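Entry 14. Structure prediction run on the chain below.
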Amino acid sequence: MIAACPECPARYRVEDAKVGPRGARIRCVKCSTIFRVAAPESSAALDSSGVDPAFSEFDASGLPARSDSPGNCQVVLATGDDESVAGALQSWGLGVSIASDGAEAMLAIQRSLPQVAILGVDLAGINGEQICEVIKRNESLREIKVILVAGDARALASLAGTERFGADACLARPELLDNLNEIMREFGLSLDAGGPAPPPESDLAPPPPSASRDGLDEERAKAERLARIVVSDIALYQAENFERASRAGTLVEDFRIEIAEARQLFADRIDERVRSERDYLVEELMRVAEDRRAG
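Output returned:
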């Protein structure tokens, strides 16, 4: 069910199981109003008066927020796995509207005109690719930035041709949270200080020679992200084989088929000048193996 604060535009997705038979009381995160929500089977309206200890009670800070006010919604989120992503976005001070399927996402986008839409490619009804195509073909919507989210690296590889959909970024679901802060900043959203802080300047690796002059920094970052996605997928879905090959020192040999497939993906999506600088895939494979051994 959706619980709407009576004093501000905030709305929250509440699991029916959390609401007792006599309803619940919720404290709004945005304005601190305490209001009641009726039990699912009850027809009672929302009421902000009184407090009954027999009611279930919880703070809305633990609930995925929905924000249907055009001025308060910066991100429409519909990936099928939204709570952790919504929590991160809200911790950065961004208004979020969560949609449960493609039709609801399309409606939220048209109603609230967000700055960013994060869409799963496997949404029910209208999938993320179809929504992206609608957005980019519609003059009133095409400025909205679109992130398409695939289930894993293999599914992401199938999006190599999404240029026709106009997606601004494509990520595998396991890598979404790791890259979200950086992408939001690239999209020009101002994030609150509560979000993940960038590393101190002294801790940043020096750029490759002439990186500031050749205009390929963004392409290098893209290559690093893609390598992380591929290796993360290998380590996650072939964990036992990964550990065994890591101990034996045969990672490159044992995963030669996966590496060959990933190299084709790199050839399709990464500038040849960047690919020729270093072996992003093997470096990331070794880095992850070393981190796991150290851990």
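The first helix runs from residue 83 to 91.
Filed with the rest of this week's runs.
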